[in-house]
């Protein structure tokens, strides 16, 4: 119980480090969120307003802050033998990124961190592949725009896919909670709502 609590706290604190802000300041000496339309300290804005290296470093940082706490907790352990603590271990970095203690609980969307947490389940990469496949499907096959709408529908469809294809109930619950938190955060954000548009790649 104590060990689980330590890694939950570690995951939250890792998530609370907003690398888009950190690397933008180190490389550009500015707050890139002030220039972006949605004010999101995430990977996309790091690339757009901070440049290639700022984006790459932010992406790596956001992935690793999900991977490291989860993988460290699972080191030498059997994932299938883990109990309810895995739910909190998996969601802690995402919650930290969305509600960071270091930035007044105003953070990003949590997309890259979600991938990081699922990659931390290695060698069980099935959940991460499901989320990636749904993102690619809604980006390249049935294209949903803008990104705001694509993210919401990706998490919804990925939730259904997790229920259907993932066997570990704790991973399923962890993703459902993550999807709920991400969706609520986006619904409450001040981001401008553009009309959702759906197009099919081969008909364009």
Describe this structure in words.
It is a single chain. The chain is mainly α. The protein has one domain. The chain has helices spanning 2-15, 19-28, 43-50, 52-74, 85-98, 111-119, 126-141, 147-165, 169-188; strands at 142-145, 197-200. It has a two-stranded antiparallel ribbon. Helix 4 (52-74) packs parallel to helix 6 (111-119), helix 5 packs antiparallel against helix 6 and helix 8 (147-165) packs antiparallel against helix 9. The longest helix is centred in the N-terminal third of the chain and has 23 residues, at 52-74. The protein is globular, with a radius of gyration of 17 Å.
What's the number of helices?
9
What structural class do the secondary elements suggest? mainly alpha
Label the overall shape: globular
Major beta sheet, strand line-up: 1-2
Sequence of secondary-structure elements: HHHHHHHEHHE
Give the terminus-to-terminus CA distance: 54 Å
Cα Rg: 17 Å
**Total domains:** 1
Features:
204 residues; mainly alpha; two-stranded antiparallel ribbon; 65% helix; globular
Provide a quick synopsis of the model:
By secondary structure, the protein is mostly helical. The protein has helices spanning 2-15, 19-28, 43-50, 52-74, 85-98, 111-119, 126-141, 147-165, 169-188, and strands at 142-145, 197-200.
């Amino acid at each position: 119980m104590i060990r689980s609590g330590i890694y939950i706290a570690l995951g939250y604190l890792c998530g609370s480090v907003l690398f888009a802000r950190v690397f933008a300041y180190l490389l550009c000496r500015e707050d890139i969120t002030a220039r972006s339309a949605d004010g999101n300290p995430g990977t996309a804005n790091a690339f757009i307003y901070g440049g290639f290296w700022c984006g790459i470093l932010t992406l790596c940082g956001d992935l690793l802050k999900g991977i490291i706490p989860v993988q460290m907790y699972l080191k030498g352990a059997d994932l299938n033998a883990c109990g309810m603590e895995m739910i909190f271990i998996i969601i802690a970095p995402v919650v930290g990124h969305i509600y960071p203690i270091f930035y007044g609980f105003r953070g990003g969307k949590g997309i890259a961190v979600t991938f990081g947490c699922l990659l931390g389940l290695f060698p069980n990469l099935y959940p991460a592949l499901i989320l990636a496949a749904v993102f690619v499907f809604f980006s390249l096959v049935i294209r949903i725009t803008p990104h705001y709408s694509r993210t919401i529908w990706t998490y919804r469809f990925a939730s259904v896919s997790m229920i259907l294809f993932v066997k570990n109930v704790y991973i399923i619950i962890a993703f459902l909670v993550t999807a709920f938190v991400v969706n609520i955060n986006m619904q409450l954000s001040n981001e401008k709502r553009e009309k959702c548009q759906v197009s099919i790649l081969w008909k364009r």
